[in-house]
């Protein structure tokens, strides 16, 4: 028998694998909660989609053109071979500049927003029946103004949302006079006013700068590719046509801004050339007068052609000197223009200087001046970007002066070399009259001034043509187009998220409840903590009716057989203690039905109520009261015979004896520790095969521990959903300390269908509820055991 007992313990100590089916069944039992949660989540998603703003994305594409691609007329064919110098980052920054956004806001009146007031949600509208405008210049608006305007039969009712003041306006056109309202109202059309009668609108007027900043941040501008000159301009909004008009207006403002810059350069060039014409005319008049006087004074008319080939050589040298001197004059004119500037002003470009470095520096300086002037109009003098731009201009100006000086020195060196060559050529003309030399000199000066005059006249014509035919450096590939599919909310995505949220929210709550739940529910919970102690019985939830005890025998026969398995067989009368940690775990119920099971096996059985503090055994007998004499009376009064106090239970034809607890004594511990108790054990063993004691709970009192030495086997009752796991640890300590002998567990009131996911093998379906009226369960525990 000892060998069999050890084998039983070895089997219970085997490690149980994780039962995935059991874990899943814990959650599947709450499928109505999951279904309800999914329905609520999906319904919330549909409600959100019903009232959420539908955002659409509008997009336009423009190509930036360089000097080779635009249609500006220019006589300088060298530009045809220049590489594109478009900086997309700069162009994107210009598109997103507050300066341009402010122009768009002004053009489209974007700083005034209209909202139709409905019963559920106010909705922004872009075609209101009236137009609201600030009475003064929009730039003077410093804070947000908000009004509620209701269209009436005779006009408007306007409420200032900040002060609460209400104004009644007769007529549908209001100019803002004779009232404190700083706004004007103009109807769009009489038909729209009639349709909007008795409707209310929220109108918000925002400062110009604030709206421009918001609009600038709302634009998304990206390049089509790494090496592409095409920009994509996009804007998101709830109204596609409105977003399209905003994008298109931004493109037009950008083009107009570029045209204005180009025209300003042409105007400055024309002005510079006109100033130079005045100077050149005076110079030409002076030279012609000098030539006239010289010929008259020296009686000269024509120079004889007798120098032949020598004249041709001399002429070539003179032409070289003439070209160099022309460059010196142009350089001198440019130097004077640079040095005469009091502030940062545009310099004349392409005036004929044959030095690419100087021309490039002048072009860079003009571009920097335009950027500086734009920045200065919208930023203060202490703005870091403005100061950095000013410093850049100073550096460019210094570089121009330095380059001009270097080029001037180079020309002088070349002129000196040309002069030397000319003197060598003129050596052959030593015989020519000095007068001819002087006359040539005068004619050379005259030709020089005439050539310069013609060159400047050509540049002026070019600038005039450019001013007349200036076109933008952009080509619109696609005007703004709104995608037919909204950017947000994405219906399928939101519904899918809501569906999974409906699954995971109750799953998370249940997971948390399961983790915080410290109760035992089935044998798996006990096996994980029992340290190898046997589980002798798993009792399903059965009915608590006195006439149904015979129907419960099958479940308790298993318990009886397992109890025999660990109880030494050599004993004549086997003493079985049935106890628990706390009251309400069903130890009395287990004791009574275990006695019935042994009786069914033709064993002579007696059940003794030794719980003197809270006797419950009488509840299983008809017409028996708690106050009936019983075991406590016998232990207290030696004159009584315990056999006279025994009651016979004939339920279902399996009789067994019952000795009730008796009268509740003032000191139960004293009675249980008396010698009479030991004598009683010896006597009752001679009469019965099984003696079952319904003992008090071990955690509340020490009564059971005082008499546990008389037990051959101790059944420790645990109740599913009631017994805490820490109480199981307490029972293990009692067994380890030998305070409870030969102990085994009985798990009572298991809801097998909810704990294991399959029906109990006996298929009783009884709803045992002993002690339930004394133990309040949470809603969760009631839900767990609903089946």
Q: Mind explaining what this structure looks like?
A:
With 787 residues, the protein is of the alpha/beta class. It has 4 domains: 2-7 and 10-52 and 489-516, no CATH class; 56-242, no CATH class; 257-478, no CATH class; 533-784, Rossmann fold (3-Layer(aba) Sandwich). It is built from 24 helices and 20 strands. The strands form 4 sheets. It has an 8-stranded mixed beta sheet with strand order 13-20-19-14-18-15-17-16, sandwiched between helices. Strands 3-2-9-5-6-7 form a 6-stranded antiparallel beta sheet, with no helix packed on it. It has a 4-stranded antiparallel beta sheet with strand order 10-11-1-12, covered by helices on one side. A hairpin with a 3-residue loop joins β5 (145-151) and β6.
Draw up the topology in text.
Elements: H1 2-12, H2 20-28, H3 31-51, E1 56-64, H4 88-95, H5 98-108, E2 112-116, E3 123-125, E4 130-134, E5 145-151, E6 155-160, E7 166-170, E8 183-187, H6 190-195, E9 200-205, H7 208-218, E10 220-223, E11 230-237, H8 240-298, H9 309-339, H10 356-378, H11 384-426, H12 434-468, E12 474-482, H13 491-516, H14 523-527, E13 535-540, H15 553-566, E14 574-580, H16 587-600, E15 605-609, H17 631-636, H18 642-645, E16 647-649, E17 656-659, H19 668-672, H20 675-687, E18 690-694, H21 703-707, E19 713-719, H22 725-736, E20 743-750, H23 752-755, H24 779-784
Parallel strand pairs: 13-20, 14-18, 14-19, 15-17, 15-18, 19-20
Antiparallel strand pairs: 1-11, 1-12, 2-3, 2-9, 4-8, 5-6, 5-9, 6-7, 10-11, 16-17
